[in-house]
Amino acid sequence: MSIVYRGAGPGDMERISGLMTRAMPRDVVSAERLGRNLLLEPNHDPRGLIIAEHPEDGVIGAAYGTCAERGVPALPTSGYMTLACVDPGHRRRGIGRALFERVRDHLAERGATSLTVAGYPQAYFWPGVDAEEHPEGIAFLEACGLAPSGMAAAMSLDLDAWSISDSVRDLVRTRRADGFRFGPATVEDLPEVIAFASNRLAPDWGEVLREAALRDPAAVRRVVVARDPHGAVAGLATYGAYGDTFERFGPFGVDETRRGTGLGRILLSLTLMQMRSEAAHGAWFLWTGEKSPAGHLYASTGFTVSRRFTVMRTDLHTPQSAKAPRNEDQR
Hints:
The protein has helices at residues 12-23, 31-39, 95-109, 135-143, 166-177, 190-201, 205-215, 218-221, 263-277, 293-301; strands at residues 4-6, 49-54, 58-68, 75-86, 114-117, 129-130, 147-158, 181-184, 224-227, 233-239, 249-254, 282-288, 304-315. The protein is of the alpha+beta class.
């Protein structure tokens, strides 16, 4: 029976969510979140969402590709595949390859010169592929010409078993005596905090903070700010900013001129305390360098690695669709 490859229609977010429960149950995503990260992301093009449908079994595969043409940061030649899965009962029949080729060609037609899985700044589900959970996914992508280009560690902390250390309490007292101030942000702080995040930490983080504050007034006070003796923002940490759960930690960073002073350790611990005060039982995030200074800071505070993701990437050249016509039985 012919597999039909089509775009999205009514009810497909529920169908894709159901597909994911069969294909990747550890990574299942709700229909609401799929809609937010696929249909409502700032660079959405309907042609980038490809669904494989079986005449009897329904939706058996899906993939999504997009380019960071607009938004912060704007990376118009960078293409991303943020979702790809095939029903276990229909694997090894060329469906995954057909989905991938359609995504690849779509991105090349939009002007992308690279394809990365996943890590799309504006709306990603995972920073890459969990090689332990999905070894067949890594092998498939390698067969499609992608190669590892980096690693990302997801980490988590049991807040029920955590408490701020005496050494951090002492460090807070020392830095306060030096003139530093720490505390939750107010709405009046936000313009300066957003500018600091965008200009001193990461281009997209200011937008994350702004959108969080517009979505939920509680997000304002969930930004913990460090100010230096002159009153300037020197660092920040927050949680719940991405809108999925308030136990998700980040963004978090300290101005590079103030690193090595313990401000990061203070902000991290004070933010975890504030999360616990809101009855959070855990803190987690998806992406850091395990061997980076931030990774060491998290580990020394009590975070442990929960998953490791491999970032996969390839260069894009002439779209495959320009080289040869497709079999119309798989349109």
